[in-house]
Design a protein that fits this description.
CATH architecture of one domain: Orthogonal Bundle
Function: May act as a GTPase-activating protein for Rab family protein(s).
Distance between the termini: 38 Å
CATH topology of one domain: Recoverin, domain 1
Keywords: GTPase activation, Repeat
Oligomer: single chain
Shape: globular
Number of helices: 46
Strand order of the largest sheet: 10-11-12-6-7-8-9-33
Protein name: TBC1 domain family member 9
Strand content: 5-15%
Helix content: 40-55%
GO molecular function, one term: GTPase activator activity
Number of strands: 33
Structural class: alpha+beta
InterPro entries: EF-hand-dom_pair, EF_hand_dom, GRAM, PH-like_dom_sf, Rab-GAP-TBC_dom, Rab-GAP_TBC_sf, TCB1D9/TCB1D9B_PH-GRAM1, TCB1D9/TCB1D9B_PH-GRAM2
Largest sheet: 8 strands, mixed
Radius of gyration: 38 Å
Length: about 1200
């Protein structure tokens, strides 16, 4: 290809000149092509790989040089001699004569460069080459990556790094390629080639470590191998990127969301490094945005635009604090360099004025931002102030237009509902309403429309103040309230408050009861989501009311178990509010739906916050502060359990071994973490923990858990079993009291369950929290994130292994495959599903993966993926007819007609082919061809229906076709679907139940009984069956014998079909006629009406097939059946007369038909066919081959010239 001219200093080094003229030179790389160039060639090849030279991919090039100059210009390079010769000839024909006219050498150079650039521009225009952000160097690397590892276009390379790969004790210098779904390594040293391909989804451990010999090492572990890479130029960047890509893969395993590139990134600047791809920049931007959102508790979709150093004037201590300003689409945030000094969040929706103040020596380039609540923030020392102001004003403009649009929308909605609201004036707008059909009447509750609705936090309605004895406590509460009011006066109130060390001090002393809801909203960031989504909660409640599914059933079951000891939940008002919040959340996030422990946390939120506020607090908890905690597998809690174990090993090492032996850590951490200590501590103490959690995040829970262990260190070391340890910890937590609480004591359920031993002396909650900060306050949020990543890999891979074991355990009794074979097949099946998620498939991957389904249903594949697996694993996949056969097989296995098959269905099909007897295999082959053709207008609906009734009876009998289509017609409303073991049990009414029993009963009868019920095969279907048989044998050892046998069977069956046709016309003919025909084999009767032109004379004659079938009885058949021989692959093909498919052809004999018994009996007459279908299949070899093909992305080349290291 032509390339933009670049100068080359040493034209002769490492290149051999093959052609030359006064202006151009065609060169070949040393060591390329025949002979390999000896030692010099090996050295050059090694150098090319180590130095990432483009010559590795393009070993030919054309240089331009003026006669008197020493500088050469590369103007074209090519991967093959043919490509480069075309360019050379073009130059000789079109440019040489023109160049001789010029006198000045500079003019010649300018002309040649211009000409080449013109050709490139023209090519790009004609071939619609889009301009993208990736540099030429990176595009070259991408092409190299795809060529080396056989990856498709869809597999995007993110970056590549030079490093050494330790193969045994020998380091191989080469290149590590990191793409979205794979980690690949390539090395070529002195003729020895090493390739490694690892899928990110297979990685179980990824760590950066240092040893004495190797200072910086990245270790990548999979279930079977460990790979070590070292000698990086920038190990931190490489490791961070690898970590990020592995994380994306884990997310994909968890919720099946593929990676989508962000196309809205700013264009690349000219100065940017040559290697950085648009994808790498996208991932870097994501990582920065994630850190930014976590730091300031911002909504999930907030994207960081940029950050800059500056100072902020803090009026409370009259200082300019040094720190960083962050600007994103909807927020301006600030954090001080000294972490705890001050942080600030200014939502752009609150901003009224942004202005540049006058610069001075004291205050260089200041910027003042004013908000609606009359606060002004003064930033200074901004480097690029004008650009910053421009960005902020752009974002402000977007924000105000968004607000106007929302107002218009909500205004129009409210105006239509005015009458209804005026009738129910007492109802608060935050308590949404839902029409149940009667006009003008709205209700809130699923069961009873008379239930009153809470218009405020439940605690304010149920606060029972006891008489005089609480007065000192009330006074203390009043003082706390005053302290917070003073704080607001000094530091500001609401979102834009200056958050300082003093704020933290006040939180640790306990938030006053009356302010809890407001401050929880503020510190968790839920206030932002609530402000930007007005009316969202009302709509959700309205949509979700009256809907029933698995989540709502579980919610109903748990409603009365949520803080039952609190008076607010001892009546229908509190219960109804809890029901609405939980149902609305299940409707918002069907991936989570509802999980136990959410009810306890939500009931506490409802005590202190209004209903809508409680909903947004729950959103903040489930989606940001406790990620993945409340999904069906509580992955987040399991991850944090692993983190807690690591922290325990580090901070309480003397206790760690003892706890591991007792197995206590896993038991305690789930109950402590999932409910934020609410289920294990007295209520009034646990809410103090929740206060700190909303302020400081998950580190508070870790600190507190470590403090509890530390406080009980001696008792725990003396424990003999986990029960004793749990009792020690339970008694300790029961004794944690809040002496400041103004609430009447609420009996704590946990305390009622402990034994009658001596109660633990009281522990003050505020002292416990403070000591946790003093002893373990050094735990940093970013370190926790790092540890979470490591544990997430482990937890998700463990879950995947468990799923695999469960699937295999379910299926192993139904099939002849061994457990190991099933596990290997499951891995291949899942890999096919995952590959389709990121390389595209004919159906949407998210529709095929539903974590709420039983294990067997979780991964499903469509027909395109099935074709791939069919060709690799199924013994019948041979020749050109393989794909159509795969499609037929797929339709047969897909019982419910949703164009997807699960693992059980897949194994049932493969099992028949590998372990079935002759009759089963032939019945399967017959059924595949009896299936009606897929046409837009089905011509014979009766026969099609008749056929479908019997397709599925042998393979997996338990599913009813009609019922499944009913399931599919039900609309998916975004809820978790109600599924038990399989979809068939969705509605267990009596007829269905009997239907299944009947099906099972049928299955227990001898198989041969129902062969008579199989539909007959018509002529066109029979021709398809013949084509399948011919293509099936194309690569078999006994190919000629099988062809001969097939020809015999075919002619026999043709005769039978006609005989059957004749029989139907003459019903008085005795039925024994059929049997005579079956018995009379053409081998005995040489003068049979079906004549065979035999083999030896015609074998070498390519104009004629090895065997032609001529039916003397039907001349029409001569036109319909021809045998075409292409390189010894004999296939039966349709003649031109039936171009549009045989069913529509007029030449087809409508009455011609054969039964399965006739087909079976005919095949049994030929020993070669019997032997072929009875031959056992070695599935292990096929699995090994399939794994190799899948890992390298294409069939393996010979391994003699290089080593391939693969991981599973």
């Amino acid at each position: 290809m032509w390339v933009s001219p670049e100068d080359v200093l040493l034209a002769g080094a490492l290149w051999i000149t093959e052609r030359a003229n006064p202006y151009f030179i065609l060169q070949k790389r040393k060591g390329h092509g025949d002979g390999g160039g000896g030692l010099a060639g090996l050295l050059v090849g090694t150098l090319d790989v180590v130095l990432d030279s483009s010559a590795r991919m393009a070993p030919y090039r054309i240089l331009y040089q003026t006669p008197d100059s020493l500088v050469y210009w590369i103007i074209a390079h090519g991967t093959s001699r043919k490509e480069i010769t075309e360019h050379w000839e073009w130059l000789e024909h079109n440019l040489l004569q023109t160049l001789s006219i010029f006198e000045n050498e500079n003019d010649i150079t300018t002309f040649v460069k211009g000409k080449v650039q013109g050709i490139i521009a023209e090519y790009n225009k004609n071939h619609d080459v889009k301009e993208d952000d990736d540099t030429d160097k990176f595009k070259e690397a991408s092409a190299k990556f795809r060529k080396l590892f056989g990856m498709p276009e869809e597999e995007k390379l993110v970056n590549y790094y030079s490093c050494s790969y330790w193969k045994g004790k020998v380091p191989r210098q080469g290149w590590l390629y990191l793409s979205i779904n794979h980690l690949c390594f390539y090395s070529y040293l002195l003729g020895k080639e090493v390739k490694l391909v690892v899928r990110w989804a297979d990685i179980t451990q990824l760590e950066k470590s240092a040893t004495l010999l190797l200072p910086d090492v990245i270790k990548v572990s999979t279930r079977t191998n460990e790979h070590v890479f070292s000698v990086f130029l920038n190990i931190n960047e490489t490791f961070k990127l690898a970590e990020q890509l592995a994380n994306i893969a884990m997310r994909q395993l968890l919720d099946n969301k593929g990676f989508e590139q962000d196309r809205s990134l700013p264009k690349l600047k000219k100065k940017s490094p040559k290697k950085v791809s648009a994808l790498k920049r996208d991932l870097d931007a994501r990582a920065k945005s994630e850190r930014y959102r976590a730091l300031f508790r911002l909504p999930k979709d907030e994207k960081l635009d940029g950050h800059t150093d500056c100072t902020l004037w803090t009026p409370f201590n009259k200082m300019h604090i040094l720190g960083q300003m962050f600007v994103s689409t909807n927020y301006i945030c600030f954090t001080s360099k000294e972490e705890t000094l001050c942080s600030l969040i200014i939502p752009l929706r609150e901003v009224t004025i942004v202005e540049k103040a006058d610069s001075s020596n004291v205050l260089p380039s200041p910027l003042s931002i004013s908000t609606k609540n009359r606060m002004t923030f003064l930033f200074a020392n901004l480097k690029d102030r004008d650009f910053l102001v421009q960005r902020i004003s752009d974002f402000l403009q977007q924000t105000t237009s968004k607000i106007h649009l929302e107002r218009e929308l909500t205004g129009s909605l409210n105006s239509s509902d005015d009458e209804v609201y005026s009738q129910h004036g007492s109802l608060l707008s935050s308590s949404p309403q839902h029409s149940l059909g009667s006009e003008g009447e709205r209700t809130f509750n699923l069961n009873d429309s008379s239930v009153p609705t809470a218009t405020q936090a439940l605690m304010t309605m149920y606060r029972r103040r006891s008489p005089e004895e609480f007065n000192p406590k009330l006074a203390k509460e009043f003082m706390k309230e005053q302290a917070w009011k003073n704080h607001f006066a000094e530091y500001g109130q609401g979102v834009c408050m200056y958050r300082t060390e003093k704020t933290k001090e006040l939180v640790l002393k306990g938030i006053p009861e009356s302010m809890r809801g407001e401050l929880w909203l503020l510190f968790s960031g839920a206030i932002n989501e609530m402000a930007t989504h007005p009316g969202y909660y009302e709509d959700l409640v309205e949509k979700s009311m009256g809907k029933y599914n698995l989540a709502t059933e579980e919610i109903e079951r748990d409603l009365h178990r949520s803080l039952p000891e609190h008076p607010a939940f001892q009546n229908e008002m509190g219960i109804a509010a809890l029901r609405r919040v939980l149902t609305a959340y299940a409707f918002r996030n069907p991936n989570i739906g509802y999980c136990q422990a959410m009810n306890i946390v939500t009931s506490v939120l409802l005590l202190y916050a209004k209903e809508e506020e409680a909903f947004w607090l729950l959103v903040a908890l489930c989606e940001r502060m406790l990620p993945d905690y409340y999904n069906t597998r509580v992955v987040g809690a399991l991850v944090d359990q692993g983190v807690f174990e690591e922290l325990a090993r580090e901070y309480v090492p003397q206790l760690y071994d003892c706890m591991q032996d007792l197995g206590v850590i896993s038991t305690i951490s789930l109950s402590w973490f999932l409910t934020l200590f609410l289920s294990v501590m007295p209520f009034e103490s646990a809410v103090v923990v929740v206060d700190c959690f909303f302020y400081d995040g998950i580190k508070v829970i870790f600190q507190l858990a470590l403090s509890v262990l530390h406080a009980n260190i001696h008792q725990l070391l003396g424990c003999k079993d986990d029960g004793e340890a749990m009792t020690v910890l339970g008694r300790y937590l029961d004794s944690v009291t809040n002496k400041d609480s103004t609430l009447p004591p609420i009996p704590h359920l946990h305390s009622l369950l402990t034994d009658n031993g001596e109660p633990h002396p009281e522990v003050d909650i505020f002292k416990l929290v403070r000591s946790s900060y003093e002893k373990f306050g050094s735990i940093r949020a970013d370190v926790i994130e790092q540890m979470r990543f490591k544990q997430r890999l482990r937890v998700i891979q463990t879950i995947e292994d468990t799923t695999k074991r469960n699937v295999v355990r379910t299926i192993v009794t139904e099939t002849a495959f061994s457990i190991d074979e099933l596990e290997e097949l499951y891995v291949l099946f899942k890999a096919e599903h995952l590959t389709s998620c990121y390389w595209g498939g004919s159906s949407n991957p998210t529709e095929r993966h539903d974590p709420s389904l039983p294990y067997l249903e979780q991964y499903r594949i469509d027909v395109e993926q099935f074709k791939g697996l069919f060709n690799l694993l199924f013994p019948w996949a041979n020749g050109a007819h393989s794909d159509p056969l795969a499609v037929r097989f797929f339709r047969l296995l897909d019982q419910n007609g949703d164009a997807l098959i699960n693992f059980r269905e897949f194994i049932s099909g493969l099992g028949v082919l590998c372990h079935g007897d002759l009759t089963e295999k032939l019945k399967l082959l017959y059924k595949m061809h009896v299936l009606p053709e897929i046409t837009h207008e089905q011509e014979e609906p009766d026969s099609a229906f008749e056929a479908t009734q019997y397709f599925f009876e042998d393979i997996t009998p338990e599913t009813s076709v009609g019922h499944d289509s009913k399931c599919r017609s039900e609309k998916d409303d975004g809820f978790v679907r109600v599924t038990f073991k399989t979809e068939k049990v969705k509605k267990l009414n009596t007829p269905d139940y009997r239907h299944y029993l009947k099906l099972w009963n049928q299955e227990t009868k001898p198989k041969r009984e129902n062969t008579k019920d199989l539909p007959k095969l018509n002529q066109s279907q029979f021709i398809e069956l013949c084509k399948t048989l011919y293509s099936m044998f194309s690569e078999d050892v006994a190919e000629q014998e099988l062809y001969h046998a097939t020809a015999t069977v075919t002619s026999l069956l043709l005769e039978m079909g006609e005989q059957g046709d004749w029989d139907e016309g003459n019903e008085q003919l005795p039925p024994m006629q059929d049997i005579k025909l079956e018995d009379s084999s053409p081998k005995d009767t040489g003068t049979s009406s079906a004549m065979l032109i035999s083999d030896d004379e015609t074998k070498d004659d390519t104009s004629m097939s090895s065997y032609s079938v001529l039916s003397a009885g039907s001349h029409e058949m001569d036109e319909k059946l021809q045998c075409e021989d292409i390189a010894d692959d004999t296939v039966l093909v349709r003649s031109d007369s039936g171009t549009n498919g045989l069913p529509h052809s007029t030449s087809i004999d409508k009455d011609w038909a054969i039964t399965f018994e006739q087909f079976l009996a005919s095949v049994l007459t030929e020993q070669a066919l019997v032997h072929y279908f009875e031959k056992p299949v070695e599935v292990a070899a096929r699995i090994t081959n399939a794994k190799n093909v899948r890992k390298v992305g294409r069939p393996l080349l010979s391994t003699s010239d290089y080593e391939i290291s693969l991981s599973g």
